[in-house]
Amino acid sequence: MLNKTFGRYIGKDSKIHLLNPKIKIICFFLQIVMAWISNQIEIQLVLLVFFLLLILQSEISFFLFWKPIWKMKYLLLGICFIEIVTKGFSTFLVVMIMKVVNIMLSSTLYLVSTKQKEIMIGIDFLLSPLNIFSIPTDHFSFLISNSILFLPTLFYEFDKTTKTLTCRGIDYEHSNWKEKFQILSFIIFPLITNVIKKADSMSDIMELQGFQLGEKRTSYLYYSFYLFDWLYLIYHIGFLIVIIKGVML
Q1: Above pLDDT 90, what percent of the chain?
Q2: CB 227 within 8 A of CB 20
Q3: From CA 70, how far away is CA 32, in angstroms rounded?
Q4: Helix 116-127 crosses helix 21-37 at what angle (to 10 degrees)?
Q5: In the predicted model, what is the mean pLDDT of the chain?
Q6: d(Cα 71, Cα 68) in Å, to the nearest integer?
Q7: What is the mean pLDDT of residues 130-151?
Q8: How would DSSP label each residue in the chain?
Q9: Burial 154-181 (b: 16+ CB within 10 A, else e)
Q10: Is residue 2 predicted with pLDDT exceeding 50?
Q11: Which pLDDT band, with edges at 50, 70 and 90, does 1 fall under?
Q12: What pLDDT, on a 0 to 100 scale, did the predictor assign at position 220?
């Protein structure tokens, strides 16, 4: 079954959780760039160790990070099979797999250590330069953050629907590929219906709370910049510069 906790915020009192959301989202995108542009196994290994240290610092169980990667095993095996058949085994294949693993670790760490409000603040900060061109960045930040945070709901509803079918004698988890494809036709409609109901309930709650998209919003939360925030950002920038120099050599 799909992991119910994937992408859900897990509250801890770690330094990763307490990072300024503006610094955190900048460093998150720097991590994605670092993992994607490098085609050297050595650098990917260093990035893997770096992400593992961040996970350790976040005080969140590593099993939570491993499970989404394990769910992608068939996709990774398919990539390996196609690459080996067409080009044979190469270091490029190893690098591609390590890229996927590093990006998954970075993305999961960001989602589980960042609140919804902080994600919106971070995205709005990144998009703020577009205000010069009169582009409503608050609309985009709202849509992006809610789309990201609706993924756990989608996975949860899928898990709940498959368990309901299991109680009725339809076992999705232990079926073959042909049977799984047939079972999916029974899952998709109730899945979409339940997600739409939750989205409708969410919009009603926000309306009752006086939320109006496009209106200037205030916040009772104030995020200060501390020494660890700047050191975290400087370390990422320095690491990215080293990787870029290694790619250009």
Answers
A1: 16
A2: no
A3: 20
A4: 70
A5: 78
A6: 5
A7: 69
A8: ---TTTT------STTTTS-HHHHHHHHHHHHHHHHH---HHHHHHHHHHHHHHHHHHT--HHHHHHHHHHTHHHHHHHHHHHHHHH-S-HHHHHHHHHHHHHHHHHHHHHHTS-HHHHHHHHHHHHGGGGGGT--HHHHHHHHHHHHHHHHHHHHHHHHHHHHHHHTT--STTS-HHHHHHHHHHHHHHHHHHHHHHHHHHHHHHHHTT--TTS----S------HHHHHHHHHHHHHHHHHHHHHH-
A9: bbbbbeebbeebeeeeeebeeeeeeeee
A10: no
A11: very low
A12: 63
Domain boundaries of the chain, sorted by first residue:
21-248
Cα angle 230, 233, 234; round to 5: 85
What count of residues does the chain have? Answer: 249
Sign of CA dihedral 68, 28, 127, 244: negative
Q: pLDDT exceeding 70 applies to what percent of the chain?
A: 75
Phi, psi of 135 (to 5 degrees): -90, 130
**What is d(CA 107, CA 134) in angstroms, rounded to the nearest whole number?**
30
Residue with tokens 């104030």: 222
